[in-house]
User: Which sequence fits this backbone?
């Protein structure tokens, strides 16, 4: 299990690095949209993997209040990701960076919640 957790941590780190690399693209350009599509695909794969292997086991704890449960926070953050990816891709080039910042902050909070709480 320790190897699996380390693999997931490494993949979350990779996602954050890819997010940072996205800044090299001009907002609104095809490489911007393509990069966001690829990042979204990688995030979706990681989320599915964590659902299958981590969250089900760790969210089974009953000693936490639901509002304080890290799984609840992660679920809320994850629920916003599809909209944030769409907004970042569809935004006008002049405002696309703001969409990127919202997406970046959410992905970083998601990774942080998993590192600290689960």
Assistant:
């Amino acid at each position: 299990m320790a190897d699996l957790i380390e693999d997931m941590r490494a993949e979350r780190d990779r996602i954050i690095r890819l997010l940072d690399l996205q800044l090299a693209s001009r907002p609104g350009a095809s490489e911007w949209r393509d990069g966001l599509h690829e990042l979204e695909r990688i995030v979706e794969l990681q989320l599915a993997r964590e659902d299958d292997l981590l969250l089900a086991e760790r969210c089974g704890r009953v000693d936490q209040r639901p509002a304080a449960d890290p799984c609840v926070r992660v679920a809320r953050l994850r629920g916003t990701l599809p909209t944030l990816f769409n907004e970042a891709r569809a935004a006008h080039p002049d405002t696309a960076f703001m969409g990127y910042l919202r997406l970046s902050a959410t992905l970083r909070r998601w990774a942080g919640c998993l590192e600290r709480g689960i």
In short: Residues 30-58 form the longest helix (29 residues). The radius of gyration is 15 Å.
